[in-house]
Design brief:
Order of helices and strands: HHEEHEEEEE
Number of helices: 3
Mean pLDDT: 89
Radius of gyration: 19 Å
Distance between the termini: 64 Å
Helix content: 25-40%
Shape: globular
Largest sheet: 7 strands, mixed
Strand content: 35-45%
Low-confidence stretches: 3-20
């Protein structure tokens, strides 16, 4: 009987711990992503850089008449572009469509609308892969789409 109570108690404690972790992780993951876009809006390259893992990969799916291509960008080039655009110029408005977490790996899907100097430029979807490194969620991989059609602007 004591053993059954111990097992049941252990199950409840472990279930509670597991149930709490995803919520805290989801909040921290969303905060990392929101920090990226706050950094872009404020041309804050230090904040932007803090969102990424040291060996992060940035890519964009480009669809043209010649076909679909995946184009890469270095974090240093990206932060330089943000800084040169200036504060308040780059406004990417996202929504969180899906956040999936398994241990130290997360996958996040965020539809967005992008505004440059207050004018709508394009929309698309960001696909993030984040890794929990040293207790912090960092963006390891980011790929996005860009289009002007179907944006409901």
């Amino acid at each position: 009987m004591k053993f059954s109570i111990f097992l049941f108690s252990s199950f409840i404690i472990c279930s509670t711990a597991v149930a709490q972790t995803p919520s805290a992780d989801t909040s921290a993951i969303k905060q990392t992503i929101n920090n990226l876009f706050t950094g872009m809006l404020n041309a804050d390259t230090v904040l932007i850089r803090s969102c990424f893992a040291s060996d992060a990969v940035l890519q964009t799916v480009s669809v043209k008449q010649s076909g679909t291509k995946v184009m890469g960008n270095e974090i240093s080039d990206f932060t330089r572009q943000v800084f040169s655009s200036g504060k308040g110029m780059l406004d990417e408005r996202i929504s969180f469509a899906a956040v999936h977490v398994d241990g130290h790996l997360a996958s996040v899907w965020t539809p967005y609308k992008f505004y440059y100097k207050g004018n709508f430029l394009h929309c698309g979807v960001n696909s993030f892969q984040l890794v929990k490194l040293g207790g912090e969620w960092k963006i390891q991989y980011l790929i996005d789409t860009r289009r002007k059609d179907g944006c409901e602007e």
